[in-house]
Task: structure prediction
Amino acid sequence: MTIIDVLVKPGSKRPGLSRENGELVLRVRERAIEGAANEACIRVLAQTYRVAPSAVALVRGLRSRRKRFVVALPAKTEGRR
Result:
């Protein structure tokens, strides 16, 4: 399990994940209306960590730009390469 704190910038022209001033910034095209930006954040983080969107959960900051997500990473199996 990995905890990720991000600053979300909804309605961005150039979506993406970057580090600015030591902080992880997640830009999404979707506006912060009816949870659309939160859902977009979950999709981006799922793609970034190569997990299903159901493995990403918003745990803090539902209505804030500063959010905390938890990503359930798959367990590494020993002996497989």
About this structure: Residues 36-49 form the longest helix (14 residues).
